[in-house]
Amino acid sequence: xxRRSLQGTGxxxxxxxxxxxxxxPVQPCSRQPRIPCQPAxxxxxxxxxGRASSSNIRSAQTSSAPxxxxxxxxxxxxxxxxxxxxxxPPTSNSSSSSSxSSSSSSSxxxxxxxxxxxxRVVNDxxxxxxxxxxxxxxxxxxxxxxxxxxxxPGLQIDVEAMKASEWARLALDTEGAATRLVVLKLHYxxxxxxxxxxxxxxxxxxxxxxxxDNAKQVKKLLSTARDADALVTVLPSLMEPRNLxxxxxxxxxxxxxxxxxxEVIEADPELILRAQDCDIPFEPVYVxxxxxxxxxxxxxxxxRRTNWQAYIDQKCYGQE
Length: 320
Description:
Layout: H1 2-21, H2 54-64, H3 67-86, H4 92-128, H5 138-151, H6 164-171, H7 174-187, H8 193-199, H9 208-221, H10 228-234, H11 241-254, H12 261-267, H13 270-277, E1 286-287, E2 294-295, H14 301-304, H15 307-316
Antiparallel strand pairs: 1-2
Helix pairs in contact: 2-3, 4-5, 4-6, 7-9, 11-12
């Protein structure tokens, strides 16, 4: 009897000891209650992808939470759904507006670079023309540059093709430049004058009489060409009769007088440019001191050669 009572006393004291040391009292949770589990066969209203919609989650939380916490939880779910909606990809209207803004910004950037280029050109021309006279002011040079670019759309002033001081002189004589362009257009109606003047702008500084005389001689020397205007566009240096004669004589010498030099040049205009890049010398053309007439030693060689030269050409080189 006493053993049974001791056992009961020890068991009750052991239970009280465990309750004090191992199991602390449970504190009430201040967090938001979890969504209760749904019975099998019910759902929170999943969408087509299998995810629960925000409206059903909101209704479930409102019904399960206390009245004081329901408003806070609904506001949290609403803010999360708004964040999800804000992360959706933009519509076509937003994409079109963004593309329009990017195109406008790129056009502004292009205009800015073009304005900077023109400003730099004007500065170079004004600096180079300080000793030419007081008429070369910044305003006059800037206006002349604008008129030159209007006469030849696409022309860009390049100080590598002509000195800046000569560009300044040309900018203050736009009426003379227009007259020379008209003369060139009459003699070379199908030529690209903008492309020609980009490489040889000094032509616009020549006298009108010299320009007309040169054009007539070039047309005469290129009379056998299929399209002399296209040839001059590719090789603007041929607009100088002296250069043209030197090229014709040199090409004729390369092919041992067996081919028409005009035909060779027209078939491959880049041949002359490649020769210039490789520093291949061309036949000289001399100008007389008195009258200014030019002569080429190898020009019309067949007609001017002697009998012994013809014999050497036939026996040694097989030329007629």
